[in-house]
Amino acid sequence: MIQYFTVRRAHTVWGDYSDILIHGLVDYDGNKQTGEDALMRADAWMPEMGLPLGMWFVGERVKHAIENSKFRNFLGNRVHISKATKVGWRNWNLEADEPQKYPAQSEPENYILARKNDETTRLAVPPVWRLIPATIEGPFATWVETAIKSPETAPHLAARKGELSYCVSEDFKTLLENIAPSAMNFERK
After folding, report:
1. C-alpha to C-alpha distance for 189 and 187, rounded to whole angstroms
2. Which residues pair with 186 in a beta bridge?
3. What is the pTM of this model?
4. For 36, which DSSP code?
5. For 3-48, how does the pLDDT look when each residue is reduced to its tens digit (9 = 90+)?
6. Rounded mean pLDDT of 148-159?
7. SS3 51
8. 84 and which of 107, 121, 124, 174 could share a cystine (Cβ 3.0–4.6 Å)?
9. SS3 for 127?
């Protein structure tokens, strides 16, 4: 029987501060201007998978694994990096209880929004691609019941319409965990 899991960001020690530093911010204005998916980053480092609000992106290794699997139809276009700031957070003590430096007004988003774009950093950000889930209506529980009854037509990656949460099949979860084991948390539905 097919099983499904909700996807959550992996736990981070600094809460929202870590989330912004690790996952970045979706650039909705950049999307409107260019029509392509756009992301803003704090530094050039990029995780294997990221979940900023409104997008799920994957790096090169995850992309190649998905391309060579039955899940390739979930890969979207390459994501444009519209802004990258120089913070240097990867040099901080990542085990500390608090970040070494807080952003302006102590707002996590200000690691990116309150700083100028650093073009050298922006160009150094590794490429990422967006995952495109099937859109479902109604609660995940109802969708999972339907998917279990018709596994041959059930998508392996889905998102609820109008929400920012994702659900994956056990097969897709296993593929992701084999490539980037600590990037996301999965909870059985």
Report:
1. 6
2. 7
3. 0.88
4. S
5. 889 898 887 889 999 999 999 999 988 767 677 889 999 999 999 9
6. 80
7. coil
8. 121
9. coil
Alpha-helix residue ranges (DSSP H) falling in 24-133: 28-34, 60-67, 119-124
Amino acid at 117: N
Contacts of 144 (CB under 8 A, 6+ apart): 4, 167, 189
In this predicted structure, what is the pLDDT of residue 1?
67
Q: How far apart are CA 24 and CA 111, in angstroms?
A: 9
Cβ proximity of 179 and 65 under 8 Å: yes
Tokens representing 32 are 């409107």
Query: What's the token pair of residue 52?
Result: 């900023």
- Whether the pLDDT of residue 164 is over 80: the answer is no
| Single-letter residue type at 170 | E
Closest by CA to 81, choosing from 127, 136, 21, is 127
Q: Could you tell me the end-to-end alpha-carbon distance of the chain, in angstroms, rounded to an integer?
A: 13
DSSP, res 88: -
Q: Where are the beta strands (DSSP E) in the chain?
A: 4-9, 25-26, 38-42, 49-50, 57-58, 75-78, 80-85, 129-131, 134-136, 157-160, 166-169, 184-188
Q: pLDDT tens for residues 56-99?
A: 999 999 999 999 999 988 999 999 999 999 999 999 999 999 99
